[in-house]
């Protein structure tokens, strides 16, 4: 195994390895995007969106919750957009291969966090809808909470840029990660407040998505931790990059197909 990773991550093969990894990832994500787009368009996932607000009840002389219909939209195609953004960023990495290689070797690939901060909130939006959040203004706020978690990942890499350039273990600035974790926990507490009310009655695919997403999200901080502390193969920044590419594909594939399956189930009643 050691010889294999040493061979794959050797400097003279680095450009070819990164090119191939991103090309394959782009093609696989494109297959996902194309398939779930067709499913989303044909089957559809139509959702009514509302705004909720307190209204004065003169009979009981207190404020009561009220809602107003805003719009209806088919969100079945959103998983395809989620995958397509990933495809675009993999292609951009190939187009800027030499710069990308320098980023990887420095241990800091900021483009990763830009892509995550654009694609992951789309997924978060869909999941929030699936657990029963249909207040559109609140959904927008939750979507930005989702993106903020990834913005802190960007900040964390910048804060530790110098530390990651050396092969030695040096003190890591975990403050961005702490802030990210706080936002993450708050976001998911809100989600589970909605999901918990209907967890037993929720469709199986929604349960898979919610619990599966929690597990999938844990992959990324684990990889980040191993990378920052240079544990085992993660001493090599190329291995870390390939681990992120692989984890990204596995998690996104799992989630978009569960959502696509949900669209089929919704349309069939």
What does this structure look like?
This protein is mainly alpha-helical and 269 residues long. The chain has a single domain (2-267), classed as Rhopdopsin 7-helix transmembrane proteins, CATH 1.20.1070. 71% of the residues lie in helices and 9% in strands. The chain has 10 helices and 2 strands; from the N terminus they run H-H-E-E-H-H-H-H-H-H-H-H. Strands 1-2 form a two-stranded antiparallel ribbon. A hairpin with a 4-residue loop joins strand 1 (46-57) and strand 2 (62-74). Helix 3 (78-95) runs antiparallel to helix 10 (237-267), helix 5 runs antiparallel to helix 6 (136-159) and helix 9 (204-228) runs antiparallel to helix 10. The longest helix is centred in the C-terminal third of the chain and has 31 residues, at 237-267. It starts with a helix and ends with a helix.
